[in-house]
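Sync notes, pocket subgroup
Present: LS, DG
LS reminded everyone that the earlier model was apo-only. Rerun requested with fe (ii) ion included. Inputs:
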Amino acid sequence: MTTETFGRAESLKIVSAHDEWVQSLGVPIHEGYFIQDLRKLELGPWAERECNAAFLRLAGQEGVSEARVTEIPPGKTLPKLKMGFDEIVYVVEGGGMTRLWANDGSHERTFEWSDHAMFRLPRDCWTQLSNMRGDKAVRLLHFNFLPVGMAANPDPDFFINNPYDNPGLLGEPGEETFSKAKEVHVAEGFYPSKGVMYYYWSGNFFPDMKEWKDLTPLFGRGGGGRTVYVVYPKSKMTCHMSVFPSGSYKKAHRHGPGVIIVIPDGEGYSLMWEEGKEKVVVPWQEGSVFVPPNKWFHQHFSTGTVPARYLAFHSPKQFAGQAETIEDRAKDQIEYPDEELAVRELFQEELAKKGLATKMPEGAYLDPEYEWAYTEEL
Ligand SMILES: [Fe+2]
């Protein structure tokens, strides 16, 4: 056997360091295209973390992002934990408290949260999560880029409970770094031609994504959708939440892997497909999670009685998908006049099953530049 053929054969057997670590834990791993309801997902014991948990390994994660679910029993506090990476936590259900501190006990921060909250656990500080209620378990969805980190250093001890300390991430003493997020306006926006200032929210704690009202029209993506963009201070992680009315749907688009989508409210479905291939239907409701695979088109349809909300945790910038020219970017979105007729027919059928009718304006199917009036209260 030559060195070259041996190298190839061996490299085919290599499992990513993160996959290897997750498999070694014996915690349930859920695969497929989507999770229907995180509130009912089967979990199993994770002895070291003293809780029940499960990992998601959905088709589109593709070794980029980690998603896992943790349950905290009523009244219980989990063991303290330090992570060498930022982590976003979404509260699927339940109420509790987060405590953060530096190695020497300084910079202590505590904040309470309840259903549909979202917060960041900063890297390199001690974190501890408690269930504040005596009658109901907490379920949390955790999101991070650990698989990318472990590709560079496969030793989990480098990332978990490493003594390295960075108290500056918790803010200066007395600074309210975990109170309400701040609105940040950016003069150079996505849509200056429409006279709309682009802005995002910066913060570590968002109390309720199901009730969040500060949204701005997402021109160009259709469906009457509005969005909030979120950045986390001193972190490279970002997310956004889109809200769009019942009876409407967004344009199909595609990008890179690793974007995890969770539904805080609404009902509907998404289509996901590789160009020229059969479409996968992903039904969703509150508590659903799905991940569009790398460069697969995906399109979101709202068929409930209330506006649909989806919260998308972004992958690292370098996985977003690159485009050299405007023409390339145009290839990554399908305008309504160019979409297959079957797409809107399925939407009408799905609405009819619920006694609802489409609210898609006729003009949207005629003019690729069509824009919603954004007068409807969401
Ligand atoms: Fe997307």
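DG: The two ends are 65 Å apart (CA to CA).
LS: The first helix runs from residue 3 to 13.
Action: DG to write up.
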